[in-house]
Write a structure and sequence with these properties.
Helix content: 40-55%
Shape: elongated
Strand order of the largest sheet: 1-2-4-7-8-9-10-11
Family: Belongs to the AIM6 family.
Number of strands: 11
Keywords: Membrane, Transmembrane, Transmembrane helix
Low-confidence stretches: 1-37, 113-120
Distance between the termini: 120 Å
Organism: Paraphaeosphaeria minitans
CATH architecture of the largest domain: Alpha-Beta Barrel
GO molecular function: phosphoric diester hydrolase activity
Protein name: Altered inheritance of mitochondria protein 6
Order of helices and strands: HHHHHHEHEEHEHHEEEHEEHHEHEH
Strand content: 15-25%
Amino acid sequence: MSHMIELDEFSEEQLSSTSSYGEHDGLLVPYSDARAYETPACFRVVWERLKHEVKQVVFPSAVIVPKRIASLLYATTLVFFGVFISTITIAFFRWKATDPFDAFFAHFWDEGSSSAYKPAKYPIEFFGSVLPIPCHSHNDYWRRTPLFAALGSGCISIEADIFYRNNDIFVGHVESALHADRTLESMYINRLVDLLDGMNPPRWKATDPKGVFYNAPKQSLTLVIDFKTAGKETWSTLHEQLQPLRERGWLTHWNGTHRVERPLTIVASGAADFDLVAPHGSVRDIFFDAPLDELDHPFDDGTRFRYNVSNSHLASVNFHSAIGPVFRGKVTDEQLLLMRKHIQSAKQRGLVSRYWGTPRWPRGRRDEIWALLVQENIGLLNVDDLRGARKGSWGSWS
């Protein structure tokens, strides 16, 4: 009996929580209580620092608050300007990016106009599904394939800026951009002759020539010649270079009593002299681009107008100078009334209205202005971005 009592006492003593560890008890640390483990010093420092930061956020001191606000404003400003600059950069490079549709025709364009060149395939093989839309390809020559990209996009009007130099007419926006290979004949006239030759084989009736659009053969293409140099030399040289188109009967003309529509309508714009374009009572095949915001003239009496179908075809003006700036894409009531007056005045005279210099960016604002002009029955929608014209619903208006 005494031995059993001693054994029980021994067991209780070994299991007591107050008993001390022996020299080998260190092996039992993973299974011991919390007293056997201490938090590393580095963790305690991080924990204390974290608690301090949390307290500063929840209960900031009077000294910390201004610093935090300044830091927040600085970071916000950096983010804002970063986003702004990135947006501008992306928009710029996207606008300057090569249009794949334009690049597609590069091999046709690079071959040039020659006897081996077969542009007759152009409207039939590659553009059999193109539907013409009342858009004007502004500064058409800026593209890699002037004329081709515009026609492939359905534009019924194209534009070439010209300078008279060395008894020839060169195409370019500024004089420093002129090049010996970029003449009006090589870039436009010869190519149009080739295209229309392909659309009008010899067996076709000369009294009913086809235009450049396979699906709309009666649609006339407008070629706007923007004179950068005035004078009789520019005028007489242009008249001479149009002879291959004239002798084939492809130029819209005024025959002295009425206007005869043909596949190509030539319009003189820019520094062109109205007195040279429209001498009284003459037969002509070059028409004037009248000032859309200054169509009224003392000569007008309600039935007769200074600018009319006998001497003019377009009526154009810079959008900003005639209508004014547009904020947030919204045209004011006064601007809308002025726009309607311009468009109605052009229609009254039988002219095609056009605003150039419409907002191009942001694209949302541009599209809103385009949509408004279409709604108000503008004659031609001036476009610099052919991709935007192709993606829109502009082909749905007649």
